[in-house]
Write a structure and sequence with these properties.
By secondary structure, this protein is α+β, with helices and mostly antiparallel strands. The chain has 11 helices and 10 strands. The N and C termini lie far apart (59 Å). The structure holds 2-oxoadipic acid and nickel (II) ion. 2-oxoadipic acid (OOG) binds next to strand 1, strand 4 and helix 10. 2-oxoadipic acid binds next to strand 1, strand 4 and helix 10.
Length: 316
Protein backbone atom coordinates (compact mmCIF):
# COMPACT_ATOMS: atom_id res chain seq x y z
CA UNK A 1 0.00 0.00 0.00
CA UNK A 2 1.05 3.62 -0.53
CA UNK A 3 2.87 5.65 2.07
CA UNK A 4 -0.16 7.87 2.71
CA UNK A 5 -2.25 4.82 3.45
CA UNK A 6 0.36 3.50 5.82
CA UNK A 7 0.40 6.69 7.85
CA UNK A 8 -3.34 6.86 7.72
CA UNK A 9 -3.73 10.28 6.11
CA UNK A 10 -5.65 9.20 3.02
CA UNK A 11 -8.48 7.31 4.68
CA UNK A 12 -10.16 6.83 8.04
CA UNK A 13 -7.29 5.51 10.08
CA UNK A 14 -7.87 3.14 12.92
CA UNK A 15 -6.42 5.03 15.86
CA UNK A 16 -3.92 2.99 17.81
CA UNK A 17 -1.99 2.88 21.03
CA UNK A 18 -2.51 5.30 23.88
CA UNK A 19 -4.98 7.49 21.97
CA UNK A 20 -7.14 4.43 21.29
CA UNK A 21 -7.12 3.66 25.02
CA UNK A 22 -8.02 7.29 25.91
CA UNK A 23 -10.90 7.19 23.44
CA UNK A 24 -12.05 3.81 24.79
CA UNK A 25 -12.21 5.22 28.33
CA UNK A 26 -14.18 8.27 27.09
CA UNK A 27 -16.57 5.93 25.24
CA UNK A 28 -17.22 4.04 28.48
CA UNK A 29 -17.85 7.28 30.38
CA UNK A 30 -20.26 8.29 27.63
CA UNK A 31 -22.14 5.01 27.70
CA UNK A 32 -22.69 5.33 31.48
CA UNK A 33 -23.98 8.87 30.81
CA UNK A 34 -26.32 7.84 27.97
CA UNK A 35 -27.77 4.97 29.98
CA UNK A 36 -28.62 7.23 32.90
CA UNK A 37 -29.75 10.33 31.04
CA UNK A 38 -32.52 9.68 28.52
CA UNK A 39 -32.82 13.38 27.63
CA UNK A 40 -29.16 13.61 26.63
CA UNK A 41 -29.47 10.43 24.59
CA UNK A 42 -32.66 11.61 22.86
CA UNK A 43 -31.17 15.02 22.02
CA UNK A 44 -28.01 13.48 20.55
CA UNK A 45 -30.20 11.26 18.36
CA UNK A 46 -32.47 14.15 17.41
CA UNK A 47 -29.65 16.52 16.41
CA UNK A 48 -27.83 13.71 14.63
CA UNK A 49 -30.86 12.81 12.54
CA UNK A 50 -31.61 16.47 11.73
CA UNK A 51 -27.99 16.95 10.64
CA UNK A 52 -27.19 13.71 8.93
CA UNK A 53 -23.56 14.60 9.69
CA UNK A 54 -21.38 13.47 12.59
CA UNK A 55 -21.66 15.76 15.65
CA UNK A 56 -18.56 16.59 17.62
CA UNK A 57 -18.10 17.43 21.26
CA UNK A 58 -16.79 20.78 22.45
CA UNK A 59 -16.05 19.52 25.95
CA UNK A 60 -16.84 16.98 28.67
CA UNK A 61 -17.27 18.03 32.32
CA UNK A 62 -16.71 16.45 35.73
CA UNK A 63 -17.25 17.53 39.36
CA UNK A 64 -15.11 16.69 42.39
CA UNK A 65 -14.69 17.39 46.11
CA UNK A 66 -11.71 19.70 46.63
CA UNK A 67 -9.99 17.88 49.48
CA UNK A 68 -6.25 17.32 49.03
CA UNK A 69 -5.73 14.54 46.51
CA UNK A 70 -9.46 14.18 45.74
CA UNK A 71 -10.24 17.37 43.84
CA UNK A 72 -9.61 18.39 40.24
CA UNK A 73 -6.25 16.57 40.27
CA UNK A 74 -7.85 13.18 40.89
CA UNK A 75 -9.63 13.34 37.52
CA UNK A 76 -7.07 15.54 35.74
CA UNK A 77 -4.20 13.10 36.24
CA UNK A 78 -5.73 10.68 33.74
CA UNK A 79 -6.11 13.36 31.07
CA UNK A 80 -2.61 14.78 31.72
CA UNK A 81 -1.13 11.28 31.39
CA UNK A 82 -2.88 10.95 28.01
CA UNK A 83 -1.53 14.17 26.56
CA UNK A 84 -3.97 16.87 27.66
CA UNK A 85 -2.60 20.31 28.64
CA UNK A 86 -3.67 22.27 31.69
CA UNK A 87 -5.16 25.66 30.76
CA UNK A 88 -6.89 28.46 32.71
CA UNK A 89 -8.45 28.43 36.15
CA UNK A 90 -11.96 29.80 36.78
CA UNK A 91 -13.22 30.89 40.20
CA UNK A 92 -16.77 30.98 41.54
CA UNK A 93 -16.49 32.49 45.04
CA UNK A 94 -20.26 32.62 45.71
CA UNK A 95 -20.66 28.93 44.87
CA UNK A 96 -17.38 28.03 46.62
CA UNK A 97 -16.12 26.34 43.48
CA UNK A 98 -13.08 26.51 41.26
CA UNK A 99 -12.45 24.86 37.91
CA UNK A 100 -9.68 24.16 35.43
CA UNK A 101 -9.94 23.28 31.79
CA UNK A 102 -7.64 21.12 29.68
CA UNK A 103 -7.02 21.13 25.94
CA UNK A 104 -6.63 17.89 23.97
CA UNK A 105 -3.25 16.64 22.73
CA UNK A 106 -2.25 18.69 19.67
CA UNK A 107 -1.15 15.57 17.79
CA UNK A 108 -4.45 13.72 18.34
CA UNK A 109 -6.41 12.41 15.37
CA UNK A 110 -9.61 13.91 14.00
CA UNK A 111 -11.26 10.57 14.72
CA UNK A 112 -13.43 10.88 11.62
CA UNK A 113 -16.55 9.72 13.46
CA UNK A 114 -19.32 10.99 15.67
CA UNK A 115 -19.09 12.31 19.26
CA UNK A 116 -16.16 10.70 21.08
CA UNK A 117 -15.13 9.19 17.73
CA UNK A 118 -14.59 12.71 16.35
CA UNK A 119 -11.97 15.31 17.37
CA UNK A 120 -11.04 14.92 21.06
CA UNK A 121 -13.00 17.32 23.30
CA UNK A 122 -11.72 19.86 25.83
CA UNK A 123 -12.11 18.74 29.46
CA UNK A 124 -13.65 20.95 32.19
CA UNK A 125 -13.13 19.80 35.80
CA UNK A 126 -14.42 21.68 38.84
CA UNK A 127 -14.09 21.18 42.59
CA UNK A 128 -15.97 22.24 45.71
CA UNK A 129 -13.78 24.27 48.07
CA UNK A 130 -14.60 21.96 50.95
CA UNK A 131 -12.84 23.92 53.71
CA UNK A 132 -15.27 26.81 53.10
CA UNK A 133 -18.27 24.61 53.96
CA UNK A 134 -19.90 24.37 57.44
CA UNK A 135 -18.33 21.90 59.91
CA UNK A 136 -21.27 19.43 59.48
CA UNK A 137 -20.94 19.43 55.69
CA UNK A 138 -17.15 19.07 55.85
CA UNK A 139 -17.52 16.14 58.23
CA UNK A 140 -19.91 14.31 55.88
CA UNK A 141 -17.72 14.87 52.82
CA UNK A 142 -14.57 13.79 54.65
CA UNK A 143 -16.31 10.68 55.98
CA UNK A 144 -17.24 9.50 52.46
CA UNK A 145 -13.84 10.37 51.08
CA UNK A 146 -12.25 8.32 53.87
CA UNK A 147 -14.58 5.41 53.03
CA UNK A 148 -13.19 5.38 49.50
CA UNK A 149 -9.66 4.49 50.63
CA UNK A 150 -7.40 5.28 47.69
CA UNK A 151 -10.43 5.87 45.47
CA UNK A 152 -9.00 9.23 44.39
CA UNK A 153 -6.45 7.32 42.30
CA UNK A 154 -9.25 5.71 40.29
CA UNK A 155 -11.53 8.65 39.45
CA UNK A 156 -11.42 7.99 35.69
CA UNK A 157 -11.94 4.26 36.24
CA UNK A 158 -14.95 4.92 38.50
CA UNK A 159 -16.39 7.28 35.88
CA UNK A 160 -16.02 4.79 33.08
CA UNK A 161 -17.59 2.00 35.14
CA UNK A 162 -20.38 4.18 36.55
CA UNK A 163 -19.47 3.35 40.14
CA UNK A 164 -19.01 5.47 43.26
CA UNK A 165 -15.62 5.04 44.93
CA UNK A 166 -17.26 5.74 48.33
CA UNK A 167 -20.15 4.20 50.28
CA UNK A 168 -23.73 5.13 49.51
CA UNK A 169 -24.77 8.09 51.67
CA UNK A 170 -27.90 8.35 53.84
CA UNK A 171 -30.75 10.57 52.71
CA UNK A 172 -30.29 12.96 55.66
CA UNK A 173 -26.62 13.48 54.78
CA UNK A 174 -27.59 14.14 51.16
CA UNK A 175 -30.12 16.72 52.37
CA UNK A 176 -27.60 18.39 54.69
CA UNK A 177 -25.26 18.87 51.72
CA UNK A 178 -28.09 20.00 49.43
CA UNK A 179 -29.14 22.69 51.94
CA UNK A 180 -25.68 24.24 51.69
CA UNK A 181 -24.43 23.38 48.19
CA UNK A 182 -26.41 21.62 45.49
CA UNK A 183 -23.08 20.93 43.82
CA UNK A 184 -21.91 19.04 46.93
CA UNK A 185 -25.11 16.96 47.06
CA UNK A 186 -24.84 16.18 43.33
CA UNK A 187 -21.25 15.03 43.71
CA UNK A 188 -22.04 12.85 46.73
CA UNK A 189 -24.53 10.73 44.75
CA UNK A 190 -23.08 10.98 41.22
CA UNK A 191 -19.40 10.82 42.10
CA UNK A 192 -17.14 11.00 39.06
CA UNK A 193 -19.91 10.38 36.51
CA UNK A 194 -19.76 12.56 33.40
CA UNK A 195 -21.68 15.72 34.35
CA UNK A 196 -22.37 16.69 30.74
CA UNK A 197 -21.18 16.45 27.19
CA UNK A 198 -21.37 19.60 25.04
CA UNK A 199 -22.36 19.56 21.39
CA UNK A 200 -20.16 21.84 19.29
CA UNK A 201 -22.82 23.97 17.57
CA UNK A 202 -20.54 25.81 15.11
CA UNK A 203 -19.27 22.49 13.75
CA UNK A 204 -22.79 21.40 12.75
CA UNK A 205 -23.59 21.66 9.05
CA UNK A 206 -27.24 22.75 8.91
CA UNK A 207 -28.85 25.96 10.22
CA UNK A 208 -28.54 24.38 13.68
CA UNK A 209 -24.92 25.60 13.75
CA UNK A 210 -26.42 28.90 14.90
CA UNK A 211 -27.05 28.20 18.59
CA UNK A 212 -30.25 30.29 18.58
CA UNK A 213 -31.72 27.93 15.97
CA UNK A 214 -30.45 24.93 17.91
CA UNK A 215 -32.08 26.20 21.13
CA UNK A 216 -35.38 26.79 19.34
CA UNK A 217 -35.24 23.33 17.76
CA UNK A 218 -34.55 21.68 21.15
CA UNK A 219 -37.39 23.56 22.87
CA UNK A 220 -39.85 22.95 20.03
CA UNK A 221 -39.00 19.24 20.30
CA UNK A 222 -40.30 19.37 23.89
CA UNK A 223 -37.10 19.62 25.95
CA UNK A 224 -36.52 22.18 28.68
CA UNK A 225 -33.47 24.45 28.63
CA UNK A 226 -31.85 25.91 31.75
CA UNK A 227 -33.33 29.43 31.99
CA UNK A 228 -30.96 30.77 34.68
CA UNK A 229 -29.95 34.29 33.60
CA UNK A 230 -31.67 33.66 30.24
CA UNK A 231 -31.46 30.55 28.05
CA UNK A 232 -28.49 31.83 26.01
CA UNK A 233 -25.35 32.56 27.99
CA UNK A 234 -23.04 35.02 26.20
CA UNK A 235 -19.45 35.89 27.23
CA UNK A 236 -18.58 39.60 27.65
CA UNK A 237 -16.58 39.50 24.38
CA UNK A 238 -19.70 38.12 22.64
CA UNK A 239 -17.76 35.17 21.20
CA UNK A 240 -18.71 32.22 23.42
CA UNK A 241 -22.40 31.30 23.39
CA UNK A 242 -23.70 28.46 25.55
CA UNK A 243 -26.97 26.84 26.62
CA UNK A 244 -27.91 23.61 28.37
CA UNK A 245 -30.85 21.39 29.24
CA UNK A 246 -32.27 20.91 32.72
CA UNK A 247 -30.71 17.72 34.17
CA UNK A 248 -32.57 14.44 34.18
CA UNK A 249 -33.26 12.90 37.57
CA UNK A 250 -33.36 9.28 38.67
CA UNK A 251 -34.29 7.32 41.80
CA UNK A 252 -31.33 6.77 44.12
CA UNK A 253 -31.35 4.18 46.87
CA UNK A 254 -29.82 5.74 49.98
CA UNK A 255 -28.02 3.70 52.66
CA UNK A 256 -30.92 4.10 55.12
CA UNK A 257 -33.34 2.42 52.67
CA UNK A 258 -34.97 5.62 51.41
CA UNK A 259 -35.31 5.86 47.62
CA UNK A 260 -35.54 9.45 46.43
CA UNK A 261 -35.19 11.16 43.10
CA UNK A 262 -31.83 12.90 42.62
CA UNK A 263 -30.53 15.08 39.75
CA UNK A 264 -28.11 13.41 37.35
CA UNK A 265 -26.64 14.88 34.18
CA UNK A 266 -27.54 17.29 31.40
CA UNK A 267 -26.40 18.15 27.88
CA UNK A 268 -24.91 21.47 26.79
CA UNK A 269 -24.49 23.35 23.49
CA UNK A 270 -21.63 25.74 22.69
CA UNK A 271 -21.04 28.03 19.73
CA UNK A 272 -17.56 29.56 19.44
CA UNK A 273 -17.37 32.52 17.06
CA UNK A 274 -14.36 33.37 14.88
CA UNK A 275 -11.84 35.66 16.62
CA UNK A 276 -11.79 39.29 15.33
CA UNK A 277 -8.29 38.87 13.82
CA UNK A 278 -9.57 36.06 11.57
CA UNK A 279 -12.90 37.60 10.61
CA UNK A 280 -11.92 37.91 6.94
CA UNK A 281 -10.98 34.24 6.51
CA UNK A 282 -13.24 32.44 4.02
CA UNK A 283 -15.65 30.21 6.01
CA UNK A 284 -14.19 27.08 4.45
CA UNK A 285 -10.73 27.89 5.85
CA UNK A 286 -11.89 28.51 9.42
CA UNK A 287 -10.48 25.91 11.83
CA UNK A 288 -11.25 25.39 15.51
CA UNK A 289 -8.12 27.37 16.55
CA UNK A 290 -9.41 30.45 14.72
CA UNK A 291 -12.34 30.57 17.13
CA UNK A 292 -12.83 31.81 20.70
CA UNK A 293 -11.26 29.22 23.01
CA UNK A 294 -11.65 28.56 26.72
CA UNK A 295 -14.53 29.11 29.10
CA UNK A 296 -16.22 32.05 30.80
CA UNK A 297 -16.99 32.44 34.51
CA UNK A 298 -20.26 34.32 33.89
CA UNK A 299 -21.57 31.63 31.53
CA UNK A 300 -20.35 28.71 33.66
CA UNK A 301 -21.87 30.16 36.83
CA UNK A 302 -25.32 29.84 35.24
CA UNK A 303 -24.67 26.49 33.55
CA UNK A 304 -23.89 24.96 36.98
CA UNK A 305 -27.59 25.63 37.75
CA UNK A 306 -28.65 22.96 35.22
CA UNK A 307 -28.72 20.45 38.11
CA UNK A 308 -30.38 22.81 40.64
CA UNK A 309 -33.73 22.21 42.35
CA UNK A 310 -34.93 25.57 41.02
CA UNK A 311 -34.41 24.48 37.43
CA UNK A 312 -35.62 20.89 37.93
CA UNK A 313 -38.86 21.98 39.62
CA UNK A 314 -39.60 24.77 37.14
CA UNK A 315 -42.96 24.47 35.45
CA UNK A 316 -43.10 24.89 31.68
C1 LIG B 1 -20.11 22.77 34.95
C2 LIG B 1 -20.78 24.09 34.58
C3 LIG B 1 -19.92 24.99 33.69
C4 LIG B 1 -19.24 25.38 31.20
O1 LIG B 1 -19.15 24.89 30.06
O2 LIG B 1 -18.93 26.56 31.46
C5 LIG B 1 -19.78 24.49 32.29
C6 LIG B 1 -20.93 21.88 35.85
O3 LIG B 1 -22.17 21.96 35.88
O4 LIG B 1 -20.32 21.07 36.55
O5 LIG B 1 -20.09 23.39 31.96
NI1 LIG C 1 -19.86 22.87 30.03
Amino acid sequence: SSRSEQNGSSHKSSIQGSEAFLRGVLESMQSVYLNRNPTAEAILELVHSAENNPLCYDHLAFRTFGVTGYGIDSMASFFLDYGYTRREELRFPAKKLRALWFSPPADSQDGGGRGIKGPLPRIFISELIVDQMSPQTQEIIKKYIASSGNGNQYAALASSLGLLTWEKPSYSEFQQLASESEYAAWTLVNGHALNHVTISAHRLKTELRDIKNLNRFIEESGFRLNSEGGVLKVSPDGLLLQSSTVADSMPFQFSDGATESVPCSYIEFAERLVLPQYKNLPAIEVKEFHRRDGFEVGNADKIFESTSKDQLSRVG
